[in-house]
Amino acid sequence: MAVERVLLAQPRGYCAGVEMAIKALAWMVRVFEPPVYCYHEIVHNQLVVDRFRDLGVVFVDDVDEVPDGAPLMLSAHGSAPEVVEAARGRGRFVVNAVCPLVTKVHHEAKVRADKGFTVLYVGHAGHDEAIGTLAVAPDAMRLVEHEEDLEEVLPEVQEPSKVALLAQTTLSIHDWEGIMDRTRTQFPELWTGTRNDLCFATTNRQAVLTAIAARSDAVVVIGSANSSNTIALTKVAHTAGCEVVVRVDGPDELDLHDLAGARVVGVTAGASAPEDLVQAVIAELAPEDGVEMVHVTDEDEYFPPPRELRELVPALDALAAFMVGGNPADARARGGPFSDDRGVDASLVLAELAG
Question: Which of the following is catalytic: 65, 129, 288, 299?
Fold first, then answer.
């Protein structure tokens, strides 16, 4: 039975933090001779990582693997303070592509810990973001993966008036709210941020998928298995009442038989999945009545390149002008291709580099 219609989520795919990180690593690939090194996967998407690996990027799990003087990027998920310190040694050019929203959680964790709080951190054990955040204040922080973990963690609290709750930015809303409500019941003075720590992109993608799943016979979520926000989307679709939910890295993994003869199929993508994969999946579905866009909000957030790269922009624009016979001085003063970072789409940048 053919697919009749696709309900396409908007927003979907790359968030502002992923856009920033991918463009930043693309800059490094263009500026430096290979290899360029990256601590951990730049984002949790297998296709993105494979494309950068083909371009000469070497992904490492220990900064000691990076040679002296080599260019090194720290991933969008955030790194432990001791990793950042070690990375900047031995003459390396280091770019920290941590998402600003993760930096916010790191800051809140340090501030609360310095004030004597017990900080409960809701996240996934072993996830890069959780590892980096827990390392900010290891003596004061306790990891909570599931609501039942509170049975062990809450009795350890020494000062009931000094309990804080922070979260991995990519969690499901339901994961965060249940733990927060239960903790607040026991500790009414519980401190949380002025806004919860789920990033706006995570929240937006879950909101639109909730609307889509209720109208769909099946949902396809595009993203990798190690992507926390992608897995959260599959849970959201099930919770919203869709019984058939399929996660795929891309069109090659899509088996129409898995959709159980669905006529209406919802499609979305995790925050690190490229748009070309979305379009390729839709082409594979080949909906007879086309695609209906389901829109809940516009995202216009923009994160500029990491500071280390922003400082290079005038020189890069001058070099680009020189290479095409232009005036380097004018490029420095007025800007050039590297100055227009906001107007550049990360999916296109990566696709062009991959050739």
Answer: 129
CATH of domain 101-186: 3.40.1010.20
Count of CB atoms situated within 10 Å of the CB of 186? 13
Give me the tens of pLDDT residue by residue for the chain, a chain 355 residues long. Answer: 689 999 999 999 999 999 999 999 998 998 888 999 999 999 999 999 999 999 999 999 999 999 999 999 999 999 999 999 999 988 999 999 999 999 999 999 999 999 999 999 999 999 999 999 999 999 999 999 989 999 999 998 989 999 999 999 887 667 678 899 999 999 999 998 766 556 888 889 999 999 999 999 999 999 999 998 999 999 999 999 999 999 999 999 999 999 988 999 999 999 999 999 999 999 999 999 999 999 999 998 899 999 888 877 666 666 555 455 556 565 455 555 556 778 888 988 888 887 6
Whole-angstrom Cα distance, residue 146 to residue 122? 8
Which helix (DSSP H) or strand (DSSP E) does residue 203 occupy? helix 200-213
For the chain, residues classed under CATH 3.40.1010.20 are 5-14+200-295, 101-186
Question: CB neighbours (10 Å) of residue 280?
Answer: 16
CATH class, range 5-14+200-295? alpha beta
Going by C-beta distance under 8 Å and a sequence separation of 6 or more, which residues neighbour residue 116? 159, 162
- The answer to whether the predicted template modeling score (pTM) of the entire model surpasses 0.90 is no
Residue 352 among the catalytic residues = no
Question: What phi and psi values does residue 77 have, to the nearest 5 degrees?
Answer: -80, -10
